[in-house]
TrEMBL record:
<feature type="domain" description="ABC transporter">
    <location>
        <begin position="6"/>
        <end position="236"/>
    </location>
</feature>
<dbReference type="GO" id="GO:0016887">
    <property type="term" value="F:ATP hydrolysis activity"/>
</dbReference>
<dbReference type="InterPro" id="IPR027417">
    <property type="entry name" value="P-loop_NTPase"/>
</dbReference>
<keyword id="KW-0813">Transport</keyword>
<protein>
    <submittedName>
        <fullName>ABC transporter ATP-binding protein</fullName>
    </submittedName>
</protein>
<dbReference type="Pfam" id="PF00005">
    <property type="entry name" value="ABC_tran"/>
</dbReference>
<dbReference type="InterPro" id="IPR003439">
    <property type="entry name" value="ABC_transporter-like_ATP-bd"/>
</dbReference>
<dbReference type="InterPro" id="IPR003593">
    <property type="entry name" value="AAA+_ATPase"/>
</dbReference>
<keyword id="KW-0547">Nucleotide-binding</keyword>
<dbReference type="InterPro" id="IPR025302">
    <property type="entry name" value="DrrA1/2-like_C"/>
</dbReference>
<dbReference type="GO" id="GO:0005524">
    <property type="term" value="F:ATP binding"/>
</dbReference>
<keyword id="KW-0067">ATP-binding</keyword>
<dbReference type="Pfam" id="PF13732">
    <property type="entry name" value="DrrA1-3_C"/>
</dbReference>
Amino acid sequence: MSTPVIKIENLVKRYNELVALDHFNLEIEQGEIFGLLGPNGSGKTTTINCILALLSFDKGTVEVFGETMAPNKYKIKREIGIVFQNVAVFNELTVYENIDYFCGLYIMDKNTRKQYVEEAIEFAGLTEFKKFYPKKLSGGLLRRLNIACGIAHKPKLIIMDEPTVAVDPQSRNKILEGILELNKKGATIIYTSHYMEEVEQICTRIAIMDKGRNLAIGTKEELKMMIKTGETISMEVLELENKYMEEIRKLNHVYQVDYADNKLNIKCSKGKHNLIRILDYLQQNQIAFGRVYSELPTLNDVFLEITGKELRDK
Ligand SMILES: Nc1ncnc2c1ncn2[C@@H]1O[C@H](COP(=O)(O)OP(=O)(O)OP(=O)(O)O)[C@@H](O)[C@H]1O
């Protein structure tokens, strides 16, 4: 097997009393789009900062491209592109000049740099805005500029820390498509987010974090196989006596039944004919029902089952 791009073992990071990373382990292979998913404060940014050697830590090891990471490992740092949560560009420079500046930190040859900057501008959809100053850009365009600055030097590893927070849907889609494109061209991507839909959409593997620990790791299919919920069936029911709720609860594969605001919610473990069995029961007992929905588990269900709380997909 090839050397992992990232290998983190037993990482502990404390901020005084607070344990931000608690014996955290992670391995990321070349070519992955790896999602670090967790609620606010779960330790995603701390993990990224430890990978980049921007933070010292209390215990454990961090290897990048097979080498122990340290603040002076410039050869490794050249191969990493980072897009931070907060936009970090110069207000005094235009879009073109900003990208040129960041690219120039790594690419010395003038012609190559010019080509890379043009490519990054096109990639981020900023061609019309080349001469604009950041203050004149919308929030979404500013994020795209931030990304272009981070990736223009064609790094092998791109780390994106919540790049779509507070971004309009159009720019969000553009950013997600862009990440897939960068990956297709060979970059390994680490993507942190608390938007589970995005992570489901683009990531090849996902780690679910909470309180500085890695709770589960796998493809989205593997994560969903880890939990009991196979299917959530919900429907509108105008009236439902308690005795029926009890009986539904006893049906095969059903393990949770809730009824509130005329909505019946039934959680089932994995089974082939859950929906048919439930509808048969309702019909036999002449219980009228309206629209019926059947949903497969989401990453939120995985998170909920593992931690007992919602991921809060804001
Ligand atoms: N410089 C710091 N000093 C003290 N505590 C910190 C510091 N940075 C982070 N923390 C705390 O460490 C924990 C992990 O924070 P971190 O920013 O890594 O989480 P996160 O998952 O990235 O959250 P968010 O999604 O809000 O960015 C939180 O409890 C946070 O309050």
